[in-house]
Amino acid sequence: MTPQTLRGTARKDTVMSTRPVGRRGLLLGAGGVLATGLLAACGSEPSAPPAPPTGKQLAEPTPVQTTEQIEQIVPEVNAAVVAADEAKDAAKLAPRVSGSAAEFRKAVYGLIEKAPEWAEDLKVPGAGTIVPMSSVSAEFPRVAIALVEDSVQDGVPYFLAMQQKDAKSGYTAWGWAEQAVGVDMPTVPNAVVGSEALTADAEGLVMTPAQALELYAKVLTDGDAADPDDKLAANPFQTGTHERIQAERKELNKGVEWDEAGTIRETYSVRDGELAGLRTEDGGAIVMATLMSSRKVAIKDGATMRYAEDNKYTKVIGTREFTKQYVREFGTHVALYIPSADAGGQVQPIGATQTALAASGE
Q: Which of 125, 69, 117, 75 is nearest to 101 (CA)?
């Protein structure tokens, strides 16, 4: 079977607006094939390939979260999100959606109450599984990451992070990150083999997951100057974020000297307690986590920032004129690929979905 290129038409995204036209799909290794919108199938079911050399050696076999099991969970996540969005009731997300995903949804429902157009920003992962990955460890929590379809036709897939807290609990999804277009994707083990789950301080990579996430947050905050050794690869979310901030800065100080009217800065941090990491076939890792950010416009003394017409943020705040500050809060689910220490190379962000959570100003 020959590899094919995964292509899709990116839909409009009011938060992530910068997207190259083409992208490569997530690769399955160890007997797998390149994903093409739905997991391609060869004429007969392949036998389970040998386990990859990386990963913890278990004393006895343990169940792997199989493709069939994941394909049952993903539609339940989709159904919960759809039901909650229709009722604008975050309680309907349980038990399949938890953590920051549930918190972010509740925050958006609050924005919708003040400005109905916020409903257009709701991102819904679809019910179809493209590529599943799951941990093979006998220990809890167990981790699964699935590349799933978008809920809209010809949409961009999402990386869906799921976790099983203990043997009595079901898998819950705590975040989804839209796959970055124009970015090469790593090769992952076949679902019947499974992957080694990684912690924030996992070794054997060019940097630990915790270090990679901290670097990404610093670069999103301070730009490329925060990465003098060029350890982080270019990515659409970073590009789009910085382009929007620069455009807003120019508009804020239009007709005056640089930053004479005010300054704008968005500061990112890594949220504790949410990390899903799985080893890829080449010894690297796919890691998902949550970033929090605050974008603050600090207005200089004597200056006034004024919108000619209301927008989604000013409707939430209740005014479109500010003399001190204008602040927006966001939460972002991200996915990164971290190469192995032996292979070397840059950390590559491969997915992100940002959600506006609140706005304030005076």
A: 125
Q: Parallel, antiparallel, or unpaired for β 348-361 and 27-28?
A: unpaired
3-state secondary structure of 212: helix
Is the pTM higher than 0.85? no
Cis peptide before 95 (omega within 30 of 0): yes
| Total count of residues recorded for the chain | 362
CA distance 205 to 196: 13
230-234 long-range contacts (CB < 8 A, ≥24 apart) are 230/346, 231/206, 231/207, 231/346, 231/347, 232/346, 232/347, 232/349, 233/183, 233/346, 233/347, 233/348, 233/349
Please state, as a whole number, how many other Cβ atoms lie within 10 Å of the Cβ of residue 125. Answer: 28
164-216 confidence digits (pLDDT tens): 888 888 889 999 999 999 888 888 876 667 788 999 999 999 999 999 999 99
Beta-sheet pairing, 348-361 with 305-306: unpaired
Spatial contact of 171 and 162, defined as CB atoms under 8 Å apart: yes
pLDDT at 355 over 80: yes
Per mean pLDDT, which of 38-52, 76-90, 140-154 is the most reliable? 76-90
Q: Phi then psi for 192, rounded to 5 degrees?
A: -75, -10
Region class of 37: left (phi > 0), else alpha (psi between -120 and 50), else beta: left
